[in-house]
């Protein structure tokens, strides 16, 4: 039996359910004989299409059925291997094997490193290698001559960046065949071309006994086009297109392109690659066929939409120069019956509304629904909302391995090593849910929490040595000594796990050795939980491929590039759950949704940059270079996304959604959304009911705002001993004092925090105390002590570099001032001295930085400040009482060994901050004559006594409530704002 005279080409329009219509026709033609059906073969674009067609056969069969052979031929990117069912066995001239993808990427990364004029780390090299591989694949898929690059004369017209990239690309393109020859392999795209050519040639001589149907293909690859041409001409062959627009008139069809070359310049204008029909038109051209050769597939199904939908979709997707036709459309030609649009404010509202629409479908017996979106964040949110009602959606796109526990553990290990066990990276690793999985985890977490408390504040030195120094026994607060003692008991176990990992990397400069060390120690840290389950198996398989190929991979494997390398490689692997979700609800990506149709299709995330997404840039070839040598433009992906959108619009019920705001700010509506809205005009239907339900679902029945907290603890628990440093807090914000002193809630410093004022103040006071106690008064001695403090092993080098120079300048000023005072007859009586006195019914305590005996016999109180001291206005208003309270204690003989004076006659702040061009200055909140609106020196302690007496009488010996933010205008650290729920009541008039 010879070939047909006309190719057997058919089309299932967008308004029909493709899989059901295809299966209905196949059964009508071949279903009368079960064995005849089983001998047939259906070629489909991808595995998801196979699943959809299989489900359609199950629905249509009504019983047992021997299915035809279903083969995934490839997707638009030709990224899937040709089905094994088509692999010709026993050939005299076997096709060489394809190089493994991971091995190929590693070799290309090494070649990029070696050929680049500038150093390229391993992570960046792998990204460039992936892009390079994609270009190589496109060149082979399009069957372009490599010599076309050498013949180009555009290099002088390109920027220097593109000239460099083109030159490097040419070098790599020349070297790559040599690498393949060395390995005895060929590229996967080349192997597929040869395989498809061989299949087409074999079928030309001996067509298969059973029927062969190629369905739903949209890729324009010449090898695919040739095979489809061969199938269409076979006696029992047929090609069935999906969503070919047969409603579009000739003028509109010709306006899509591609166009003929200009006779003068020889260049052809670019076609509208972003049009949904561009790829199918180009495929027909390469099959030597036209749209007139395509017949309508006669069969449909009960899941089809009305036929008018297809005509209206065609109108909405007119080429740009013909959209003026929308003005003249009749109502019937612009109607989108069954299509509703939902526009909400935020992605969160969009996800909630979609989840409600999906649940509504579940509540309808037999109704199916699917969310189709390229936005994985939106899909994840919708899945989470559905779990609220116990609905587990079948998310066929899966999740990238880099976001799953095994992947995050591997990335956390890489980051911890790259940052030399810096606090944040270290704690992220140690707290990972897979670390010490099992019975030991509870004790492990207790030890990690202890280490967490010690890592609050400035970063220790790098590596295991820095952690050893952090935990070493030394002087300090009692609480810190207890924490270090407890942590040391646990650290022995943790150190035994982490030190071999660090040593392995110090001795492992190569990528292969680094991967082996990560694999071995990841198993130890997690008790092999990282490799367990379907997620762990995916990680193990990927790691095995990486280790096997790493020996041929990048040579410069800087440990700092390891996290980016892992994130890139692990992010490229999607892991799907082994079991499906709800049988009637699915969440699909664009590739998975092809040829799939449900009763309700929700097309979500219709914002520009999401659907369609921004084309990924090609770092190797400039757009003009790609066009000159015949590669598809980067915008061709937009055309495929447009075809996916138009095909999905064919379902009986459609809900399209978008949020006016994205994660990064205001969002622009997708061009597809705007086209539909402009074409539909008054027929545009809104689905605001879902937005209303989304807003109402979490709406409280009644509004009960929080009131300003004002706890009234009994007198028995109110402190009777108060440090001078807490008096200001008590007066300005009694609730903060209550939380700190009565509830005993202390703010924790951030992990790996910069050295704040408290740390700097403690360090300065410690240096000055030791220098004063030594009694030398020598500037060199003071500087030596300061430098010794910064040379301590627990002080981070960055802190030393940033803060030591300004501290040295400031202490030189202090030494000069002290020498000047001593020469004037002033005498230092005590430094860093603790004092206490019974005042106003409570015990007032405080530490004076320095107490001097002035020449007139009165006491001078000095308070060192590393920053700007309180203003005289603050002191006079009673919100900076510390200096005056210390003078009050001195007058009550509260400081031992200072010899009581009738009054304290001097009050000074010595600030180490910068003023003018130098560091260090004195400031006094008092003046003997009350000049500049300062307090008179002789009246200072009596005024402070009066103010403190009022404070003590109200909150310490009285029953006043500890109100929150009594004086919000006073500077406050805000440590307890969340506890007092400040944002819920502050600024509201309670009447």
TrEMBL record:
Residues 725-962 form the PD-(D/E)XK endonuclease-like domain. Signal peptide: none annotated. Transmembrane segments: none annotated. InterPro entries: Ds_break_AddB, P-loop_NTPase, PDDEXK-like_dom_sf, PDDEXK_AddAB-type, Restrct_endonuc-II-like. It comes from the Bacteria. NCBIfam families: addB_alphas (TIGR02786). This is Double-strand break repair protein AddB. The gene is addB.
């Amino acid at each position: 039996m010879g070939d047909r005279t006309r190719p057997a080409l058919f089309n299932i329009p967008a308004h029909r359910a493709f899989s059901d219509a295809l299966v209905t026709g196949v059964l009508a033609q071949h279903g009368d004989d079960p064995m005849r059906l089983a001998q047939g073969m259906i070629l489909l674009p991808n595995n998801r299409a196979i699943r959809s067609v299989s489900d359609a056969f199950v629905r249509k069969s009504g019983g047992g059925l021997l299915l035809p052979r279903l083969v995934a031929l490839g997707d638009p990117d030709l990224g899937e291997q040709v089905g094994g069912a088509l692999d010709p066995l026993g050939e005299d001239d076997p096709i060489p094997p394809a190089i493994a993808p991971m091995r190929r990427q590693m070799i290309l990364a090494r070649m990029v490193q070696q050929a680049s004029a500038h150093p390229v780390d391993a992570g960046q090299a792998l990204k460039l290698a992936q892009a390079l591989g994609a270009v190589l694949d496109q060149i082979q898929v399009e069957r372009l001559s490599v010599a076309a690059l050498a013949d180009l004369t555009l290099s002088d017209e390109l920027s220097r960046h593109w000239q460099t990239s083109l030159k490097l690309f040419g070098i790599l393109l020349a070297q790559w065949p040599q690498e393949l020859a060395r390995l005895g392999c060929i590229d996967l795209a080349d192997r597929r071309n040869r395989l498809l050519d061989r299949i087409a040639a074999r079928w030309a001589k001996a067509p298969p006994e059973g029927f062969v149907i190629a369905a739903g293909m949209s890729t324009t690859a010449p090898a695919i086009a040739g095979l489809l041409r061969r199938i269409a001409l076979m006696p029992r062959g047929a090609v069935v297109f999906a969503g070919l627009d047969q409603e579009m008139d000739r003028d509109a069809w010709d306006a899509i392109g591609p166009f003929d070359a200009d006779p003068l310049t020889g260049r052809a204008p670019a076609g509208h690659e972003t049009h949904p029909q561009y790829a199918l038109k180009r495929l027909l051209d390469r099959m030597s066929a036209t749209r007139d050769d395509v017949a309508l597939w006669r069969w449909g199904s009960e899941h089809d939409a009305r036929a008018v939908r297809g005509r209206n979709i065609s109108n909405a997707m007119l080429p740009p120069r013909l959209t003026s036709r929308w003005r003249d459309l009749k109502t019937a030609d612009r109607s989108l019956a069954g299509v509703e649009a939902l526009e909400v404010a935020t992605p969160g509202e969009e996800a909630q509304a979609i989840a409600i629409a999906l649940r509504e479908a579940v509540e309808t017996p037999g109704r199916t629904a699917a969310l189709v979106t390229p936005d994985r964040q939106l899909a994840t949110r919708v899945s989470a909302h559905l779990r609220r009602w116990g609905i587990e959606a079948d998310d066929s796109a899966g999740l990238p391995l880099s976001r799953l526990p095994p992947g995050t553990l591997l990335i956390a290990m890489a980051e911890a090593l790259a940052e030399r066990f810096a606090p944040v990276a270290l704690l992220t690793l140690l707290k990972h849910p897979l670390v010490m999985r099992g019975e030991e985890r509870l004790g492990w977490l207790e030890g990690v929490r202890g280490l967490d408390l010690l890592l609050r504040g400035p970063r220790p030195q790098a590596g295991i040595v820095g952690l050893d120094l952090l935990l070493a026994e030394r002087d300090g607060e009692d609480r810190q000594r207890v924490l270090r003692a407890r942590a040391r008991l646990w650290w022995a176990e943790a150190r035994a796990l982490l030190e071999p990992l660090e040593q392995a990397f110090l001795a492992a400069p190569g990528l292969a050795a680094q991967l082996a060390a990560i694999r071995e120690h990841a198993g130890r840290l997690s008790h092999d939980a990282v490799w367990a389950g379907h997620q762990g198996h995916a990680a193990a398989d990927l790691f095995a491929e990486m280790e096997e190929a790493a020996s041929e991979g990048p040579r410069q494997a800087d440990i700092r590039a390891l996290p980016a390398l892992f994130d890139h490689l692990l992010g490229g692997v999607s892991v799907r759950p082994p079991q499906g979700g709800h049988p009637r609800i699915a969440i699909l990506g664009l590739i998975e949704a092809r040829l799939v149709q449900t009763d309700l299709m929700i097309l979500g995330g219709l914002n520009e940059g999401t659907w369609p997404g921004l084309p990924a840039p090609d770092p190797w070839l400039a757009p003009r270079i790609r066009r000159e040598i015949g590669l598809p433009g980067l915008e061709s992906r937009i055309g495929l996304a447009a075809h996916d959108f138009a095909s999905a619009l064919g379902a009986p019920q459609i809900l399209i959604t978008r949020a006016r705001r994205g994660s990064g700010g205001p969002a622009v509506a997708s061009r597809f959304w705007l086209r539909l809205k402009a074409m539909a005009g008054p027929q545009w239907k809104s689905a605001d009911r879902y937005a209303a339900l989304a807003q109402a679902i979490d709406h409280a029945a009644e509004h009960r705002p929080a009131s300003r907290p004002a706890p009234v603890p009994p007198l028995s628990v109110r402190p009777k001993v108060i440090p001078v440093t807490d008096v200001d807090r008590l007066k300005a914000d009694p609730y903060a004092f209550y939380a700190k002193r009565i509830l005993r809630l202390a703010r924790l410093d951030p992990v790996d925090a910069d050295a704040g004022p408290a740390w700097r103040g403690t360090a300065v006071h410690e240096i000055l105390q030791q220098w004063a106690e030594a009694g030398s008064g020598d500037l060199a001695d003071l500087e030596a002590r300061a430098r010794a403090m910064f040379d301590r092993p627990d002080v981070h080098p960055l802190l030393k570099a940033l803060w030591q120079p300004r501290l040295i300048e400031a202490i030189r000023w202090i030494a000069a001032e002290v020498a000047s005072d001593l020469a004037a007859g002033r005498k230092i009586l005590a430094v860093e001295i603790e004092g206490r006195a019974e005042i106003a019914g409570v015990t007032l305590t405080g530490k004076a930085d320095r107490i001097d005996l002035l020449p007139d016999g009165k006491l001078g109180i000095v308070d060192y400040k590393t920053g700007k001291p309180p203003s005289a206005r603050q002191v006079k208003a009673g919100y900076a009482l510390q200096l005056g309270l210390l003078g009050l204690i001195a007058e009550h003989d509260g400081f031992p060994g200072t010899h009581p004076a009738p009054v304290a006659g001097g009050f000074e702040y010595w600030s180490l901050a910068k003023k003018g061009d130098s560091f260090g200055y004195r400031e006094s909140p008092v003046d003997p004559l009350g000049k500049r609106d300062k307090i008179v020196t002789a009246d200072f302690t009596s005024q402070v006594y009066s103010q403190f007496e009022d404070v003590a009488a109200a909150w310490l010996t009285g029953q006043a409530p500890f109100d929150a933010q009594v004086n919000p205008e006073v500077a406050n650290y805000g440590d307890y704002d969340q506890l007092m729920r400040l944002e819920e009541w502050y600024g509201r008039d309670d009447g």
